[in-house]
Amino acid sequence: MQTIGNYLKKSRLSKKLSFEDIERETRIKKEFIKSIESEDWVNLPEFTVVVGFVKNLASFLKINRTRALALLRRDYPPRKQELVIEPIAMKVFKWSPRLTFLIGIVLIGLTVVGYLGFQYKGFISPPFLEVKTPYENQDVYEPSLLVTGRTDAGATVRVNNQPALIDESGEFVSEIEISPDTNSVEIKAISRSGKETMVRRTINPKF
Fold first, then answer.
1. pLDDT: is 120 or 54 the higher one?
2. Which of 37, 81, 95, 129 is the right S-S partner for 9, CB 3.0 to 4.6 Å?
3. Helices 4-14 and 65-75, interaxial angle, to 10°?
């Protein structure tokens, strides 16, 4: 069976040409020409370069270039790339005093940042305010009204612009005087930064 190697070799010998003669005329290294004739594909460059070599050789030797390329494509084996799997070195984790120190520093830093963030949020945000009594549209049968509720610790509370008593947990209480014409109560919580939260409750005097 004719191969690309013996096809080129037969043409070269019939014209009594040496490898040096062809190298001089085509600028293709004689080592590559020898490898093509012996079909030593390992010592040749990539396939597209070999195709160029065969085209030039076919033109120089005045042989059928289409046939030469067809033989090359049939005979040239696909190169297989070997997959090299390197073993993964497993590192043994070791606890050390230095690691303990670093983790401690990180935890302290996160705690401080979290605390400062919480304090800053509390400083710039209006205070929490929950009014327990009176409830909305509550009927009142006497000229005094007990106002109770809860707010942030450290905030102050005013009921109808009068200060309310407040404990350390934020629970507050205030007893105010009302008249038959009083139809609402205004409860206001004020933070240390001056931010305010206000709740207004409607009442119905019945005395």
1. 54
2. 37
3. 140
